[in-house]
Amino acid sequence: MKAVFHVVEMEKWSLSLINVRNLLRDAKEDVEIVVVANAEAVDGYTKDFELAHVMTKQNAKGVVFEACANALKAHEIKEDEILDFVEVIPNSMIELIKKQEEGFAYIRP
Amino acid sequence: MKAVFHVVEMEKWSLSLINVRNLLRDAKEDVEIVVVANAEAVDGYTKDFELAHVMTKQNAKGVVFEACANALKAHEIKEDEILDFVEVIPNSMIELIKKQEEGFAYIRP
Amino acid sequence: MKAVFHVVEMEKWSLSLINVRNLLRDAKEDVEIVVVANAEAVDGYTKDFELAHVMTKQNAKGVVFEACANALKAHEIKEDEILDFVEVIPNSMIELIKKQEEGFAYIRP
After folding, report:
1. What residues in A contact C20, CB-CB < 8 Å?
2. pTM (whole model) above 0.90
3. Which of A18, A38, B7, C7 lies in disulfide reach of A68, CB 3.0 to 4.6 Å?
């Protein structure tokens, strides 16, 4: 199973991470999970975000967290302000298209 | 045609059911519709929800309504409190992935 | 690359058009973009909408903008009130299914 989660609003981080946690726990087969955040949701990747410890734990289990470079720029967040494991991608739309082309299911919490 | 509707917020039930109604009415070919509710939206499956009669009618036309067991538990809703025809699924994320693997289009009202 | 953007809320027009702009700018290969608006978001297609000039410019670059006829009717918007280049489609759900069947990635800003 392969899924790409699209997180757009800050208020959706909590639900998104619960969704990911439950998916990791309940999946009977291997599951590849990529979380793509853009727009204001990239603020959730800053080191002082209250759910950073949850992301850190999920990343250790193989979940990939990605931040849209365009959104980081628009929200004036520098790369050294975000969690170390977060991968900065040039364009989140291209990533969402590519992932779906590769057979990832799209989930918008 | 096959579509899976993902309902996350209570306030999206009205629009979601309008979308389903219009799809049933306008489709020129057979259409398989599955509605997956998770998070707070599972509250919409309780028997006293104001749109329960709409769901009941749509279910009679073949629409499948599914509730995420994890969300029911989180919102302290017991299975005997929800509409009889609603199918409880163990994990809505897995269901959304599986449905997309089976060729269902994903729609997030 | 092919992507269908699903715009549902008026407040999502700004982000949606930024997403489209960035995609057009950053894509290294041809990209086919269809924007499907339904529900209240069809109000964004009226000629006096503040972002009409952005849509006009993007349409000139090949982006297709579509309005759900059911939503126009529900919101009492006549076809002569909307931007000339907007294509009225009978049912936005059917369009979203067809586009995904044709290999378009689904993006819900």
Report:
1. 93
2. yes
3. A38
